[in-house]
Specification:
The complex is a heterodimer of chains A (about 425) and B (about 160). With about 425 residues, chain A is an alpha+beta fold. Chain A has a domain of about 290 residues: Orthogonal Bundle (Cytochrome-c3 Hydrogenase, chain B). In chain A, a hairpin with a 4-residue loop joins strand 7 and strand 8. Chain B has four helices and five strands, in the order βαβαββαβα. In chain B, helix 1 packs across helix 4. The longest helix of chain B is centred in the C-terminal third of the chain and has 19 residues. Classes of the chains: A alpha+beta (about 425), B alpha/beta (about 160).
């Protein structure tokens, strides 16, 4: 490939992004050395989940929406449950609330473990993929795989199975795990806690590109805990509202180049969800060893370098292990596997923290408990516009570099967000304008 | 000798994608004592767990676009690379080919890992195998049994063995 000259027009396309979930592509267009456009194209087919929820009973929402994703089904189940419970005015507390947090710990450990060890580390260590990395660094890949298995086991114990769990219902669970089931999780989580801390030491030695952005970060904020299931919707630029006001502060719009809807704040700016957002808004409520890991990684009060998201993910794995162990040690037995959730006509709102960011659900339900309208916003669709903005900033001044180098840089930058493109694709409202 | 495991891979709710699971089902009660028969949805990490520690492992899975429906491919994964893209292409749930290569890199591949791929024709929602695939399932079950009983490499039954009468 010849070195490009500054005056010519160039088009660089990454036709299929690898090491991300789902099908997406990126097109950059430049003219005279200036970037003209940068489009992250998501071409997963529309999923129609919102449409197919209409007419189903509200109690079915957790099981139907869990099918949106095999990677973070818990996020969908939990957001659906919380939305319906919000509508019914029911609070799930005590051991059942603890077990829900435990289930979420499993999902974070599983998803982050895989992302850190198998999807992101190869970028930092200079390998095309985890298989190539495994030849030189088998211990890193073994650790990542075992972390994933540890998280999966938690999900299997609480959810019945790790992919699309079947044991979650409105108000709690269908069947509670026995004390022996829970105790059996402890050794694996104790190993995972130490393994994640060691991995943190390794990650602390990596070199990070010098790249800083001024983000509006959005996450749940809970007064007492690092958020999974509950909290207010808060941003670093002043949003601070209950989840029921999500649609007033974050709006979705269509963009011709992507099947997934884009999101912007009321001011029209892109926002960022996920580990960086959770950390900036909640780090003082991390568990002790997670705090220590963050300090050893030099994270400070906020992280404005997206390449350091790998650091926050390892901190969140440490947190999830500590939190899971704390729950396993203290939680008592629940009186019943679930509390009743009597649905009535109205609208329910729920948001929980998927590994890759906040997952928002809104359901309108009629007097028979049937869903009449649903809205589901996946974090990757929210992050899309911010990813594009990052790429534009990252490429500034670098457009004279060879295509392959730019392609790798862009792919790597996109992987920072652990995008789940299959989740991001949903279909809200089709408008046909005919002249 | 370390254990022998047979792993059926697939999704029975996706028509011919259930071929590998059907092979596992066909071997239940027919395999010699001590042979473990397992089922997987094809998640690479799970597959790696399933064959780690086995002396010999047989994997049966549906494949597409590799000949006419019902055709059987036999691949000795321990001695050669599998064609990339066998199984799902998602990165978070890497498939059989990636699992084999990762296990090879990590040194956890069994000394003998034989993959039987059955070419399917229908992968839409719904249960039930195409007749050609159903017949191939029985042939693969028979070939797996034959290989289990005749372990030495190099004396494997020839390809295209007939269905048992």
């Amino acid at each position: 490939m010849s070195e490009p000259t500054s005056g010519e027009s160039r088009r660089i396309s990454v036709d299929l992004l690898t090491r991300v979930e789902g099908a997406g592509a990126l097109t950059l267009r430049s003219r005279g050395g200036e970037l003209e456009s940068c489009e992250l194209r998501i071409f997963e087919p529309p999923r129609f989940f919102e449409a197919l929820l209409a007419g189903r009973h509200g109690s079915e929402a957790p099981d139907i929406t869990a099918r949106i994703c095999g990677i973070c089904p818990v996020a969908y189940q939990m957001s659906a449950c919380h939305a319906m419970e919000n509508l019914a005015g029911v609070r799930v507390d005590g051991p059942l609330r603890d077990l829900r947090r435990l289930l979420y710990c499993g999902e974070w450990i599983e998803s982050h473990g895989l992302h850190v060890g198998m999807l992101q580390l190869p970028d930092f260590l200079g390998y095309p993929d985890a298989i190539a990395m495994a030849r030189d660094h088998p211990e890193l890949v073994r650790t990542a795989l075992r972390l994933k298995q540890t998280g999966n086991r938690v999900m299997r114990t609480l959810g019945g199975r790790e992919i699309h769990p079947v044991n979650v219902r409105l108000g709690g669970f269908y069947r509670l795990p026995t004390r022996a089931d829970l105790d059996a999780l402890v050794p694996g989580l104790e190993w995972a806690l130490e393994a994640a801390r060691e991995l943190g030491e390794r990650i602390a030695k990596l070199e990070f590109p010098d790249f800083h952005q001024d983000y509006e970060l959005v996450a749940l904020v809970h007064p007492d805990e690092y958020p999974f299931n509950e909290g207010r919707l808060v941003s670093t630029a002043g949003i601070d509202v209950p989840v029921s006001r999500y649609d007033q502060v974050l709006t979705e719009h269509q963009s011709p180049h992507s099947t997934a809807l884009h999101t912007a704040s009321a001011r029209g700016d892109p926002v960022l969800m996920g580990p960086l957002a959770r950390y900036a808004l909640n780090h003082d409520r991390l568990t002790p060893l997670a705090h220590e890991t963050a300090a050893r990684l030099g994270l400070g009060d906020a992280v404005d370098n997206p390449f350091r998201a790998i650091c926050v993910r390892i901190v969140e794995i440490v947190f999830a292990c500590e939190e899971a162990l704390r729950i396993l040690r203290r939680t008592g037995s629940a009186d019943a596997p679930a509390v009743p959730v009597p649905l009535r006509a109205g609208t329910g709102y729920g948001a929980t923290e998927a590994p890759r960011g906040l997952c928002y659900h809104r359901y309108r339900v009629d007097a028979d408990g049937l869903i009449t309208a649903a809205k589901i916003v996946a974090p990757t669709s929210v992050n899309q516009a911010r990813i594009e903005a990052d790429l534009r900033a990252l490429l500034a001044g670098k457009l004279s570099r060879p295509d392959d180098e730019l392609r790798f840089l862009c792919e790597r930058a996109i992987r920072n967000y652990d995008p789940c493109i299959s989740c991001a694709t949903h279909f809200l409202d089709l408008r046909v304008e005919r002249a | 000798m370390r254990g022998v495991r047979v792993i059926g891979v697939g999704n029975a709710a996706r028509a011919d994608d259930g071929a590998g699971l059907a092979v596992a089902a066909a071997l239940q009660g027919r395999a010699p004592p001590g042979v473990e028969i397992l089922c997987s949805d094809g998640d690479g990490t799970e597959l790696m767990q399933m064959w780690t520690g086995a002396g010999r492992a047989f994997v049966a899975d549906a494949v597409r676009g590799a000949g006419r429906p019902g055709r059987i491919h036999r691949l000795a994964a321990a001695s050669s690379r599998l064609p990339a893209g066998l199984g799902p292409s998602s990165s978070h749930q890497f498939g059989l080919a990636e699992a084999v290569e990762l296990a090879r890199a990590l040194g956890t591949l069994p000394a003998e890992l034989i993959v039987f791929g059955i070419v399917g024709s229908r992968f839409a929602s719904g249960e039930g195998l195409s007749p050609e695939v159903e017949a191939a399932v029985q042939r693969v079950a028979w070939r797996v049994l034959a290989e289990i009983r005749n372990p030495p490499p190099g004396r494997r039954p020839r390809r295209g063995g007939r269905r048992p009468s």
